[in-house]
Structure formats: C-alpha cells, structure tokens
Design goal:
84 residues; mainly alpha; 2 strands; 7% strand
Length: 84
Amino acid sequence: MSFPGPPRPLVVAEQRHSTVALVLAWTLTVVTGGYFLPWAIAATRGKTNSTTIGWVNFLLGWTIVGWVVALVMACRPHRTTTYA
C-alpha cells in the first residue's frame, strides 16, 4: 500500500481578460503618462486580481506609495494553491 505524498501545488495560470480591458488599460497608461502602468501590467500578465490592482492604482496611486504597492502587486508571481 503506497501513501500519497504531500499535495503538489497547483499553479494558477494566467487568466484571460477581455481585449477591451487590455486596450483600455494601455490607452489610459499612455494618456496619463504612466500613472496606470501597474494596472496595464496586471491586465497583460493575466493576473486574477487585476481589477483590485486597478482600483488600488486609481484610488491610492497619487500617493506614490500606493502606486508602488500596485506595481508590486502586478509584478508578483501568480498565486499557487494546493488541492486535497
């Protein structure tokens, strides 16, 4: 009788977003001189929390610290989860 080892991590791959959201994110990034760059990166990478990153960027990006936080969120690796 063999015992299964610890559960292997399931890597959550990129999530596909609509083309409209992607084009909107990059258009706003260019128009605002890079202000929405974290959101555009998150949308391009297919982050599952790109909407949250967009809101953090929109509401707190003007503080510079909020912009950096949104950028770090966008550049972090995709989330991994385990299954039982």
